[in-house]
Amino acid sequence: MALLVQKYGGTSVGTPERIQAVADRVARARRRGDDVVVVVSAMGHTTDELIELAEAVTGGDTCTADHPREMDMLLSAGERISMALLAMAIRERGVEARSLTGSQAAIITDESHTAARIVEVRADRVRETVDGGSVAIVAGFQGVSTAREITTLGRGGSDTTAVALACALQADRCEIYTDVDGVFTCDPRRVPTARIIPQISHAEMVEMAQSGAQVMHARAVDLGARYGMDIRVLSSFVDGPESDDPNRGTLITEHPMAMEDLVLTGIASSRGYAKLILRGLPPGMRTPTDMLVALADAGVSVDMVTEAPDADGRVLLQLTVREDDLDRAKQVAAEVEAALGGGGAMEERGGLSRIALVGSGMSGRPGVYAQAYRTLMDAGVEVEAVSTSSISITLLVHADGEDAALRALHAGFSLDRPAEVPAVAAAG
Amino acid sequence: MALLVQKYGGTSVGTPERIQAVADRVARARRRGDDVVVVVSAMGHTTDELIELAEAVTGGDTCTADHPREMDMLLSAGERISMALLAMAIRERGVEARSLTGSQAAIITDESHTAARIVEVRADRVRETVDGGSVAIVAGFQGVSTAREITTLGRGGSDTTAVALACALQADRCEIYTDVDGVFTCDPRRVPTARIIPQISHAEMVEMAQSGAQVMHARAVDLGARYGMDIRVLSSFVDGPESDDPNRGTLITEHPMAMEDLVLTGIASSRGYAKLILRGLPPGMRTPTDMLVALADAGVSVDMVTEAPDADGRVLLQLTVREDDLDRAKQVAAEVEAALGGGGAMEERGGLSRIALVGSGMSGRPGVYAQAYRTLMDAGVEVEAVSTSSISITLLVHADGEDAALRALHAGFSLDRPAEVPAVAAAG
Fold this sequence. Notes:
The structure is a homodimer.
Chain A: E1 3-8, H1 16-31, E2 35-40, H2 46-58, H3 63-66, H4 68-92, E3 97-100, E4 107-109, E5 118-121, H5 124-131, E6 135-139, E7 142-145, E8 150-152, H6 157-169, E9 173-178, E10 199-200, H7 202-210, H8 218-227, E11 231-235, E12 250-252, E13 266-281, H9 286-297, E14 302-309, E15 315-322, H10 326-339, E16 345-358, H11 368-378, E17 383-389, E18 392-398, H12 402-412, H13 421-426
Parallel strand pairs in A: 1-2, 1-9, 2-6, 3-6, 4-7, 9-11, 10-12
Antiparallel strand pairs in A: 4-5, 7-8, 11-12, 13-15, 13-16, 14-15, 16-18, 17-18
């Protein structure tokens, strides 16, 4: 008998039929003798509809900024609906179930409305519910602050609730059900040969998530990493016996089995980046420091920073930012440049995509850079900027060349080789 | 500076525009220097939509009976939405506001899901909110049980929340905003000369509500009576300066001003009644006792009971029940009749309406019966049954004659005389 934490996202409970399918799966798990804690998101479009109502009432689109406490109260209604419906559907199948709000489940957060952080999970009531023979259905995304206020966790909130509960309960398995089959080596809409990654480390998954893989939020993976909690990502749209295959989807685990001698585990990408090139700045630590501090103060997040000697003993600074932030970044950069003495020049390039090659296999392995550059050169894609971490290489390319780059890199690093099935089955 | 408790029903917060109108009124009250506690229902059709979802998920219409706890969890999402939206709308007007769930407002109930009774209101947090300079917006209809479960109060729940809070806070005024202008002397759709009752006692209002006046639920009025809390019923659809007239609508109060020498205060009616006539029963206390006990055990509510000597020293029993209960009542009555020795006969008449003449003015005043009968005879309406209490006379008539009866009685008891305005203005 295992204790399972299963999380179902918005599309997985988007209609009465999908809720019934989830209830079927949970009931099957109970009949097998497992204890089940379910974490649910709000149904499909509920959150969008609630936001539209708030905008209609306030006559604008700044309600989250203007009324954070009340937005949390409003949006937390969404999971209340989905969890009560799911509890009913499970009970209709002869299996006892009880829904619990974030407050009842004691998901204690800080007081940052609309983006609260979990500070503690007092899982006593969830455990009592399970020990009493019921499925516990916990509202994802929401909590209660130390000041007894209703809070929501912001982006990736429901995943985070699920992983936090799994950690607090020391669950045997944490399963994140979603609308795709798992974590892919690359976006299958862009790279048709992309395949599911059977196992991936937490660190690699964080890198994939931060670089555009939307299947799971980095924050929840990071929490799993800290507590050594394995997380399986799989589709809620697979029904019947196939659905109970224990090796479905992707297992995020501390020590993924190295099934193949692969340098890369996966490739993620996202659009909407720009770079800002500042020439003729004074040398020394003060230039990048002043620039980065000013940008951070202005709320501009800088992704990559390159510093290089320019002509005449001056310095060139290249910064990568989100395209949305480009105007603000230019303004701040011009101010800092003037404060540093002026005389510099600014150049910008927008419409860029950021491609992350992720894999702990690249660590300490020479030639990965070279292979990436050669692959892209052969594909006719120019690299605009590059940076690296121990388990990733991030490349900036023109958005026009993104798909070609992804396909070339996916093939060049042998990611489209099929996984060796026996090794996957042994992973358990 | 007064402390106001204002309750807004589903149609009063049914659209973003109506929510803004409510926010305008609340903001005006705050600017006048009053402290305001608002109790809100779910928006217009929210509850119906949630019930439809539950029926779709469970595949039937017995979800309330089958899953009472989860229905409470589900439906309580409704007020969460309306109260958060209203809080935002009020804050948009530069007035601080905070929404509180039934649980946060400490509306403590028993554990009867879907029909919980309030056992205590610990109004500390509501008072703190108001003392802190905010409008407190409290979810109507919902509470938290002593076992920390989310409960709902059933029919009339939001009115009850408002009155309970007003009592607990010792509010200066308790205002129930609704979609009609107040309590009418009779249903204005049926009797065009019906007018608003300026003042009515709690007991009269309970009688009116139980007899079909839907403007306010008897349960909330009853609570107000026990704590001596005056309640004003008025329309939320009146905007502008007229809206702030302190004498708008109907004041439910312990000692209503007797403005006119009227016998009746109002007339209420409802359809869907039937009567069951049992003849040839054995005389003695056992006959009605066994019959009423058996009907009560079967869940049949009996409205009027008449016992009269029949032929041959036998007894005739006439019972009034809801038409929906008629089949069950007949079955139970037949069983009891057989157990009493048999030999009786049963007769039924459906399609009846129940008309209640309400007025503490009739107490100790002879001839009211006579006047009612003569009025109905002149109108050509036959009385099928009659019963009385200290402040009401209840008449059963054929539904076909209901409208004629209402108009005749309304005129016959001088209810269509206009109220004397100076007396009303003095009521304050």
